[in-house]
Design goal:
Rossmann fold, 5-stranded parallel β-sheet, 10-stranded mixed β-sheet, alpha/beta, homodimer, Dihydrodipicolinate Reductase, domain 2, Alpha-Beta Plaits, 3 domains
Chain lengths: ~400, ~400
């Protein structure tokens, strides 16, 4: 019997978990593929020779991370006739098109379920279950660190800093958490989901993103009082013949399928006229969990059931998106303040849905919800508001995802 | 270019929606498979000739329902070298093994995503994303009619009968709703999910099921007061070297991933040590939604990416499962009643977790939660309780799915 020889690049948390899982499930892999899997070689930053490993491999599994070396490895693997599996979101959100094209040309497969939302099968569902569906929108909670922090701030009413420290203590956040809390990790994942949902060549640079560093307990308290959930949400959607892909904190109405996704879990909702919507959720990280996604891709590669990623067709990237907004303003408590702020909003045709003013001695806090309007106009209004002498801190705006047809 | 010729059996709601969707997405199918799809013929109960349609088809799509004719059609299709796609849960929960074996022998594929939970990709995720995973448990809300009725009873505090009438008015329930409300529809779907999760030959007759006809507003009110959700839950799990597959109403703790699935939606949670758990949810029925699942299977068949269902290995079916229970008793309000009931429970080692007694004139209502115990012992205790002269109606028991390690 021909063995299934796997070249393993990277032996960190996921790499080590994959090697262990592969050993434990070798019999199952053999049952499904007719070939007994074996590790042909392991490359780390300090040991192993890539070319030697490649020469002995049928499938190359890239879990080493980084962009330039990983790109070189996967390119070489495809060119030499290997199937490849990768968990590298940064690589795919930058060089996916080159790799997917090479895979089509060489007739080899690329599996990358583990690159987005860990074991949550968002990639496979987009590539297969929804292959024939005209998708309209994808919403995702695709970063477990930020979802944990926001859940913790909601659960315990603690500060952002305390929740981050707790996430670091539990291993949900790295010592330098900036890629997670700043939104760029989620942006890379949304670029990949958007690429699959729309067959458009979305690069990470096409994704606008904001993080959660500015979220305060005030915002969480407001969300709780109104029965809203505050989440870091990735959105990819068709708008006016183009596509918008973005990541930002958002208030979700209570019935939204992502509103109840707590802790470090990830979840992805796909909307389309034909399917209404489907939602998938589960652990977005973890060694064994991610390794399980990698193993499924190895099985698919070895059984020839991994479909190619279709060629992409360029579409315009839409920058100016319409949203409802929550505004949080610190102002001097003085007659006429609300009128002046309302005037700045009115000049940009921003219509106020609700307003709450809370006095704090000489100061006051204004919280408003603004009906949907283009972000550019909201930004212009905020610019004018920030210039007012009665406004004491830069105004803060958080998007609101409302129930449609409410 | 060779066309992709599709023989369509059945032209009801789903069949007609499939034909329309196929027309609308023909370009996409061609892009993904290299073949332009066309309907080679349509068979209904009153028109078309199966053998003629089969002779002209590459893929046979069975949406005609029933068991005997459908079995004959699919057998003939596989034997003549066609791939097949079916949405027929009754057929697969009875004759799946024969069809899957035939498909392996002939090297043709069977797609059946639409047979369980509509467009929710439970089948594909079990067959592909979790192909290598040792699955421990599957929980499902796999019947939209009953989920709608229970959601409606919770939302509006109406009676079972009123909620059923509303479901019928909206088209979520048939005029004879017995397959749905009695649990046999869900049982067929759980048999199929269990078959895939455990590679064991589960027949619908192996599935014990109860429906929701006995659920009262009292039960719903109790669930609401405790923050529990009352759902019709299918469970398939490994227990003591065997497998249990069952369908029954259950109280779910508020954080359970299925607790927030409302209306006519379906959802499936898969648990395994390696993945922790993943949950999928979405519309479990609807013409276009189900047709979308069928279309994905047609694309998979035509692109050769539908993996065979592995051969099954028999395992014991476990009948006596341990559960926590909610008990609802109507008794005469008289000293010593609780003691006599507690004694019946104690003799079967049923331990009371909580009890609420409400007086209603001469009568009283006792609601208890019992710590987990084997169902056989609970049933024995209930038998003894029913014999007590102070008990005025047959005691009712509903399982409780508690948070693990609580």
């Amino acid at each position: 019997m021909t063995p299934l020889r796997i070249g393993l690049l990277g032996h960190g948390t996921v790499g080590a978990a994959f090697e262990e899982l592969l050993g434990a499930r070798a019999g199952r892999v053999e049952q499904l593929t007719g070939r007994r899997p074996e590790i042909a070689g392991v490359l780390t930053r300090t040991r192993g020779d890539f070319d030697e490993i490649l020469a002995r491999s049928d499938v190359v599994v890239e879990l080493i991370g980084g962009v330039d070396d990983a790109l070189r490895y996967l390119r070489a693997a495809l060119e030499s006739g290997c199937d490849v599996v990768t968990a590298n979101k940064q690589l795919l959100s930058r060089h996916g098109e080159e790799l997917w094209q090479l895979s089509r040309e060489r007739g080899r497969s690329i599996g990358f379920e583990a690159a987005v939302a860990g074991v949550v099968p968002a990639i496979r569902v987009l590539r297969e279950a929804l292959a024939g569906t005209q998708i309209e929108r994808v919403h995702g909670i695709v970063n477990g660190t930020t979802n944990f922090i926001l859940s913790e701030m909601t659960r315990t009413a603690c500060s952002y800093e305390a929740a981050l420290a707790e996430a670091q203590r539990l291993g949900y956040a790295e010592s330098d958490p900036s890629d997670d809390v700043g939104g760029s990790d989620a942006a890379a994942k949304m670029a990949i989901l958007a690429r699959l949902a729309f067959d458009a060549p979305i690069h990470i640079d096409d994704v606008r993103f904001e993080g959660i560093e500015q979220i305060t307990q005030d915002d969480i308290g407001y969300a709780r009082a109104l029965g809203l959930a505050l989440k870091l949400i990735g959105t990819a959607e068709r708008i006016d013949g183009g596509i918008s892909v973005r990541v930002h904190p958002a208030f979700l109405y209570a019935g939204h399928p992502l509103a109840s996704v707590g802790g470090s879990f990830n979840a992805v909702t796909v909307e389309a006229e034909a399917i209404t919507e489907i939602t998938m959720s589960g652990p977005g990280a973890g060694g064994t969990q991610t390794a399980s996604a990698v193993l499924a891709d190895v099985i698919a590669a070895a059984s020839g059931t991994q479909r190619p990623v279709p060629a992409a067709v360029s579409v315009p990237i839409i920058e100016d998106v319409t949203s409802a907004f929550y505004l949080h303003l610190r102002v001097i408590d003085r007659p006429g303040v609300l009128a002046r702020i309302a005037q700045c909003l009115g000049e940009e045709e921003a219509s106020i849905k609700s307003v709450v003013q809370r006095g704090l001695g000489e100061h006051a806090q204004l919280v408003m919800v603004i009906h949907p309007l283009p972000e550019s106009r909201l930004r212009a209004a905020l610019g004018a508001i920030a210039e007012l002498d009665v406004v004491q801190a830069p105004p803060r705006a958080i998007r609101v995802i409302e129930e449609e047809f409410e």
